[in-house]
Amino acid sequence: MDTRLLKNLNFKMILIVFFIFLISILAIASASHANKPDGTLRYVVLQSTWFLVGLLCLAIVLMIDYHTIASLAPYVYFANVLLLIIVYAIGKTTMGAQRWIPIGHFSLQPSEFAKLAVIVSLSKHLEKTKGVKNIKDLIFVFLHVGVPLILILKQPDLGTSLVLLAIMFGLVFISGINLKLFFGIIGAGILSMPVLWEFLHDYQKKRILVFLNPNLDPLGAGYHVIQSKIAIGSGRILGKGLFQGTQNQLDFIPEQHTDFIFAVIGEEMGFIGSLLLLILFILLIYNVLQIALKSKDTLGTFIATGVASMWTFQMLVNIGMTLGLMPVTGIPLPFVSYGGSSLIMNMIALGLVLNVGMRRQKILF
């Protein structure tokens, strides 16, 4: 890599992600009760380790031109599909879901990396076909995303499946598709919901019903949302203070270091802390969209837009879930929720976006 490219590197985005990660580490430390004798620093140490691994992956991604990375997209796509199939053979089952491949003391979640595989491979395809011009192009896009989506949906992992759909719609929307066709697809999707309902697992149906009325099962499926809303509401303006949130410290919030970590932030850091995190996310996504607009070619625009679609959807759904505005789907909050596969994947995604921005113009001698 020519070091002169570094003058185009968006260091602001790296700084924004670093501040988001700092909030994450504080929340994870509190959620795992690291301040108590019976608590643990294990999650903090592991998440910090994954962050450093992610930085290394980011640096490697920056060294390789994104056109070269995109040329490998078919191999990455099929390798990920193979890993998703392997999950069914040797995957570890946790809480009724078979999503992880055990590797020594750790576990790999291929569905997280499916997001990147779809972003890069679909971006390369749309660049080659010059967007979605007709139904034939659209059918190929559906098949392309549909293969990993169905494999992930069967794990079952509805949340990640929805993220893949969000990425697909984001890329299709900017590809120059006829708007009548685009909104026609959305309309058809809405009309097909009664049919899709029959394919949902019982617990997924229950989550949707409880989303409409959490009091239907306050000690079961509705418990997560009720306790999360109590935690966020009790944080008020300034929060109760780090390690001082009663809902968090007394373990009323389920999955407080992963899916419901925003509830911990809301309770202990209050409205101000929650608002700060939201502002950081908005600034991050704004910078991604700026890179998409200024990219020197459509491939770069597609890659950056795919990442922006992924992060925006995950942020809105995860935070909406903790506030009771969205059904509980198990979608992690990017860079914040505990999880090695998720964090490393997001760092690679950040590297891809920075890669596009760094190579937006030719080097002048």
Automatic annotation (TrEMBL):
Broad enzyme group: transferase
Membrane topology reported for the UniProt record: Multi-pass membrane protein
Lineage: Bacteria, Bacillati, Bacillota, Clostridia, Thermosediminibacterales
One Gene Ontology term from the biological process aspect of the record: cell division
Cited InterPro entries: Cell_cycle_FtsW-rel_CS, FtsW/RodA, RodA/MrdB
Name of the molecule in the record: Peptidoglycan glycosyltransferase RodA
Reaction catalysis annotation: [GlcNAc-(1->4)-Mur2Ac(oyl-L-Ala-gamma-D-Glu-L-Lys-D-Ala-D-Ala)](n)-di-trans,octa-cis-undecaprenyl diphosphate + beta-D-GlcNAc-(1->4)-Mur2Ac(oyl-L-Ala-gamma-D-Glu-L-Lys-D-Ala-D-Ala)-di-trans,octa-cis-undecaprenyl diphosphate = [GlcNAc-(1->4)-Mur2Ac(oyl-L-Ala-gamma-D-Glu-L-Lys-D-Ala-D-Ala)](n+1)-di-trans,octa-cis-undecaprenyl diphosphate + di-trans,octa-cis-undecaprenyl diphosphate + H(+)
Principal cellular location given in the protein's record: membrane
Similarity field: Belongs to the SEDS family. MrdB/RodA subfamily.
